[in-house]
Amino acid sequence: MNFSNRSKIIKRDSLLSFFMETQQDNLDFVGDDVQIVFWSYEPETEEWLFTGKLEQLFGYSINELSQFDFLDSLLQLENAETAATLYSYIEAQISFDIEYKVTKKDGNVIWVKTKGNPVFDSDMSLLRYNGVSRDITSKIMKEQELAEEALQFQTLLEKSAQAVYISQDGKYQYATQQMAELTGYKVDELIGMNFDRILDEESIRVAIQRAQAFLRGEQLRGQEITIVRKDKSKRIAELRSSLITYKEKPALMGTLLDITEKKKALERASHLAYHDALTGLPNRNWFYKKFEPFLKAAKADNIHAALLFIKLSQIKTINETFGHSTGDKVIKEAAAKMDSLTPQNGFIGKYGDDEFVVYFPYESKEEVQKFADSIIRELPHTLSSDIKVKPLIGISLFPEHGDEAEALLRFADIAMYQSRTNENSLQNYHFYHLDMMEKVLRTNKLTNDLQKGIEQNQFHLVYQPKVWLASYNPEGVEALLRWEHPEYGNISPLEFIPLAEKSGHIIEIGRWVLERAIREMQAVDLPLTLNVNISARQLLQPNFIDTVKSLIEVSSFPPERLNLEITESIVIFDIEQTIEKLHHLRDLGIKISLDDFGTGFSSLSYLTVLPIDCLKIDRSFINRIDENPVEKKFLQNIIQVAYDLNMEVVAEGIETKEQAEILRSFSCQKAQGYYFSQPLSFANLLEYIESQA
Question: What is the reported pTM?
Answer without folding.
Answer: 0.50
